[in-house]
UniProtKB/TrEMBL annotation:
A GO cellular component annotation in the UniProt record: cytosol
Pathway participation: One-carbon metabolism; tetrahydrofolate interconversion
Protein name as annotated: Bifunctional protein FolD
Gene name of this polypeptide: folD
Function: Catalyzes the oxidation of 5,10-methylenetetrahydrofolate to 5,10-methenyltetrahydrofolate and then the hydrolysis of 5,10-methenyltetrahydrofolate to 10-formyltetrahydrofolate.
Domain named Tetrahydrofolate dehydrogenase/cyclohydrolase catalytic: residues: 6-121
GO BP terms, alphabetized: L-histidine biosynthetic process; methionine biosynthetic process; purine nucleotide biosynthetic process; tetrahydrofolate interconversion
EC number: 1.5.1.5, 3.5.4.9
Domain Tetrahydrofolate dehydrogenase/cyclohydrolase NAD(P)-binding, residue spans: 141-276
Family annotation (PANTHER family): C-1-TETRAHYDROFOLATE SYNTHASE, CYTOPLASMIC, C-1-TETRAHYDROFOLATE SYNTHASE, CYTOPLASMIC-RELATED
Any Pfam family: THF_DHG_CYH
Catalytic activity: (6R)-5,10-methylene-5,6,7,8-tetrahydrofolate + NADP(+) = (6R)-5,10-methenyltetrahydrofolate + NADPH; (6R)-5,10-methenyltetrahydrofolate + H2O = (6R)-10-formyltetrahydrofolate + H(+)
Length: 280
């Protein structure tokens, strides 16, 4: 069997062309440019790189980014003040708070301070709840990017057994609810799960979001499965042992070039949507 390569990089590039046109129209109609504010707290080099990539993606489609950088000593109160200012700033259409923030900060409180209409990264409890109930909301960027990638390749979801390994607030948990929303039968696995290999073996659609390099073994995965690797580790290694799978699964995401580009593309797409809503 020749597996379909779920080429996130290509889908993102195609979508950027369409988004550029939409941004041009917003500018022509309103004379204004949609702006995504990015907030980076601390000096983690990987986080700084991701935030830079997000700003670059804004500029590629003609949007602007406003990069807010705060020291690692920032308090919850200071970060809440920054977010309140951005909420109140009519020129800002989307707010991204890069995860993780330093441990003295209450990250959940700060995520939830983001105004719903500017939550283009889909991190608020309110946005999550609305998404889970099937109400309109911006999706959490990584799982929404994965749903868009599956959709681009017309991967059937309804009635399939989807197994999500990981239940983090911005990846595994919203991923599971999105798959449920498309009528998959969903199993969520986590660090207390017993007999992970047996559950993974049942997956028609497998999403790896564990945060450990090649933790999910190829031999656990059944022939013909759709394999989505959300993990990303230095050297381009994911959470799933991919190499032995490529000629016996139905489809798989490469690392890099799979989920990562779709995450950024979804953030930008949802920022453009927010710009369209407020600038017409
Ligand atoms: N490409 C992209 O756009 C993005 C990629 N990532 C990548 O995705 C991966 C996951 O990220 P994230 O969700 O933020 O990570 P977290 O560390 O927040 O969550 C990891 C999850 O995996 C579970 N887990 C840990 N150990 C085991 C185990 N032994 N068996 C089963 N489950 C386990 C944890 O369970 P428990 O809840 O019980 O602790 C937790 O739910 C990382 O590799 C990260 O780099 C993340 C965000 C975006
Ligand atoms: N509030 C918040 N939202 C996020 O979406 C968020 C976050 N915090 N914190 C960190 C993770 C990580 N993340 C990535 C985005 C793109 C790539 C990506 O594009 N990676 C490229 C490779 C990049 C490289 O070459 O290093 C790829 O997979 O092809 C990876 C990881 C978003 N995250």
């Amino acid at each position: 069997m020749t597996a379909i390569l779920l080429d996130g990089k290509a889908v993102a590039a195609r979508t950027e062309a369409e988004l550029s046109e939409r941004v041009s129209k917003i500018k022509a109609r309103s004379g204004q440019t949609p702006i995504l504010a990015t907030i980076l707290v601390g000096d983690d080099p990987a986080s700084a790189t991701y935030v830079k990539m997000k700003g670059n993606a804004c500029r590629r489609v003609g949007m602007e980014s406003l990069a807010v950088e705060l020291p690692s000593s920032t308090t919850t109160e200071e970060l809440l003040t920054t977010i309140a200012d951005l909420n109140a700033n009519p020129d800002v259409h989307g707010i991204l708070l890069q995860h993780p923030v330093p441990s003295q900060i209450d990250e959940r409180a700060c995520f939830d301070a983001i105004a719903l209409e500017k939550d283009v990264d889909g991190v608020t409890c309110l946005g999550f709840g609305r998404m889970a109930m099937g109400e309109p909301a911006y999706g959490c960027a990584t799982p929404q990017g994965i749903m868009r990638l599956l959709d681009a390749y017309e991967i059937p979801i309804s009635g399939k057994h989807a197994v999500v390994v990981g239940r983090s607030p911005i990846l595994g948990k919203p991923m599971a609810m999105m798959l449920l929303g498309k009528d998959a039968t969903v199993t969520i696995c986590h660090s207390r799960t017993q007999d992970l290999p047996a559950l993974v073996a049942q997956a028609d659609i497998l999403v790896g979001a564990v945060g450990r390099p090649e933790f999910i073994k190829a031999e656990w995965i059944k022939d013909g499965a759709v394999v989505v690797d959300a993990g990303y580790h230095p050297g381009g290694i994911g959470d799933i042992e991919l190499a032995p799978l490529v000629d016996r699964v139905a489809a798989y995401t490469p690392v890099p070039g799979g989920v990562g580009p779709m995450t950024i593309n979804t953030l930008i797409q949802q920022s453009v949507m927010s710009g369209e809503k407020s600038l017409g």
